[in-house]
Write a structure and sequence with these properties.
The chain is built from 10 helices and 7 strands. It has helices at about 5-15, 25-40, 45-50, 55-65, 85-90, 105-115, 150-160, 175-195, 205-215, 220-230, and strands at about 75, 95-100, 120, 135-140, 160-170, 235-240, 245-250.
Length: about 250
Amino acid sequence: MTDQTKPAQAAMNASERLEDYFHGEAERQSVTRAMFNEAASGYDRAEALTALGSGRWYRREVLRREGLQPGMKVLDVAAGTGLVTEAALALAGPEGQVTALDPSPGMLAELRRKLRCETIEAYAESIPLPDAQMDFLSMGYALRHVGDIHRAFGEYLRVLKPGGRACIMEISRPGNRLGRMALKFHIGVLVPLLARLSGRHADVKRLWAYYGDTIEAAIDPAQVMDALRRAGFDNVRCRVTLGIFREYTGTRP
């Protein structure tokens, strides 16, 4: 096996491992919704351990750098417990408007405990909003959980105003085997253990193990950028930080 084919083979093997969780789109939605609901109350603590304390600063800096400004109307897709939503609210300010969308009622319940904004229970592939409503669309570390990125990106383009911008943050698969093993151990073993020892009762172990497998199975960044262009986005770019954190951006013409 050549060096060029090893990452593709690793992704294929990881995709097969996802079959341990579900078979088909309908089962994927029900299984993942249950996992997110179960882990909702312990999610923020586990995420903070995953990010090693840099998450809040990094999310806000990414949104600011990619153009989120005061007064904007923002849609945060796959908002979860509101970690990216919180940063968007701070940047949009009192004159702005932020809407959080997520398919998990448990995650949205946690979000509403902390933040005051409109929430929508829905999937990225079917956003129940009119056309050309938003100035900015964000998505934080959830693209690999989307069943059909082409439908999702088509929806993103539809709800953005002309000139509106999409910013998708994601964790990508490290380029070498040692890096992949270290990331998988950190996310799938160490973080759930520390979260449990911290006294939180929600069990995040299964969700974080699934996280590790979805990172391994994530589609190639070039395919993500191609899908954004096919959906109709202009100025498609991908910025990489520390070799694993990616920011995909594009603008509606």
